[in-house]
Amino acid sequence: MHVWQLTDRLLTIANRPLVLGIINVTPDSFSDGGKCLNVEAAVAKGLELVQHGADILDIGGESTRPGAGAVPLEEELRRVVPVVVGLVRQTAAPLSVDTSKAKVSRSSLEAGAHIINDVTARAGDLEMMEVARESKAGVILMHMKGTPATMQTDPHYEDVVVEIGRFFEERLRVMAEAGIAREQIVLDPGIGFGKTSEHNLEILARLGEFQRFGRPVCLGVSRKGFVGRLLNNRPVERRLAGSLAALCHAMSHRAVQVVRVHDVEESRDAVNVVASIQEWESGNDEGGMMNEE
User: Fold this and answer.
1) What is the pLDDT of residues 138-149, one digit of tens each?
2) For residue 46, what are the domain limits?
3) What are the residue numbers of the active site?
4) Residue 93 domain flag
5) Residue 230 carries which DSSP code?
């Protein structure tokens, strides 16, 4: 069991991973860019995801797809903060903000958000440390080699899992020195962020090695390019089954505590079924068994 400290609450993660639903308030995200460009559409999307089983909503105003360029601060604020305000008024679900800018995270937290999801793991904007410490927000520390604009330019590792582990060790040390509680932190190995398909497969096969840090692990494989390549270059909109297969594999090894997904309803179904099997297997039937008719 893990406890994740957010700004105003503690989340307990036991047998079933939390499902983090993605809301991209961007014109250029790789999967669903342009679908939630106005506040009303983004808020409606978030409420739909909660209805479908999302435990957390993750709002992003800057695409981090391979090759993506930076978004100006004022534009990212304009995209993200009103969505946070709108969702806070209509749902009690914790809100995460996917940003690498301290001012965006601070404004979003002031508007009612609970988690900072920073693809630079607080190494980009150094003010992020102060924001996380002062707010006691949950933080997701993700590994990325390079930047979104450069990360897929021939990434190389001697041992990808060992090197990500060293990165986590260093970031956890820096966070502790900055006064950020370990209970605030979730670790994300950054599938697809400066990794080849082979690297991604190795990370998934060895995902359980990150459990040694004693913190929840977040997995983001939803609709990603390596899934499409494994399926004969399947387009984005037809990668659901492959994404769910990776999710189920990670759960089967009890190696993941948070899953970041586009397809919330289907992912929630997969999480519930796998968790029910695991609970039965361990002699714990709290997940409930269906009676055959």
Assistant:
1) 999 999 886 666
2) 2-280
3) 224, 260
4) yes
5) H
